[in-house]
Amino acid sequence: MKKFQKVEAFTGLEAAIVLIAFVVVAAVFSYVVLGAGFFTSQQAQKVVYSGMAQASSNLVILGNVYGDASGTNQNGTGSIHTLIFTVGLAAGGTTIDMNQTVLVYQNETILQTLSIPPTGVNLTSTGVLVPPGSWQWGIMSKQNANANNLLETNEQFTLMVNISPDPPTISNGLPASDTFTLQIRPSVGAALPVTHEAPGDIYPMNILY
Asked: Could you tell me whether strands 137-143 and 156-162 are parallel, antiparallel, or unpaired per DSSP bridges?
């Protein structure tokens, strides 16, 4: 008579326990992998959006850029001491805090960073315009805007920029036929370069091209 050997095998309960363990481990591993993928995707999305915000300028120039030479011109000669122009947000642009915006003026001989004075540009009680001081700029007027200095959608700020030493004279401003670049650098977004040329004849108020 043959003797049967005793063979140890899984019972149904043991097999079920092992199967459940494999399922739990696989589920945890899948959750970790998917979580890492979602995190990586979110980080990549942030980088893309941040790059787009930094690469595009939120500001645009609305209308002409004017050069004010009043008080220093003599029959078509002299130099421009103040720039006046209006800015607004580009389509889809985000709000810009003008208090955090930096202006840099440059021509063939000058590279100057301009500051914004706490008082900005004011009108006196008699209606006389008080421009910013030497190498300073300010907000001259606002259209469709609040009292703060946040440039928002559909708002327009007219800026006055003093580009000369103090006191202004016939020869120490922007001369005739000279080209300049004014960079407007907001805290978010690319700088907006404004490049124009003074006309051949300087008058009290000039359109710069």
From this structure: antiparallel
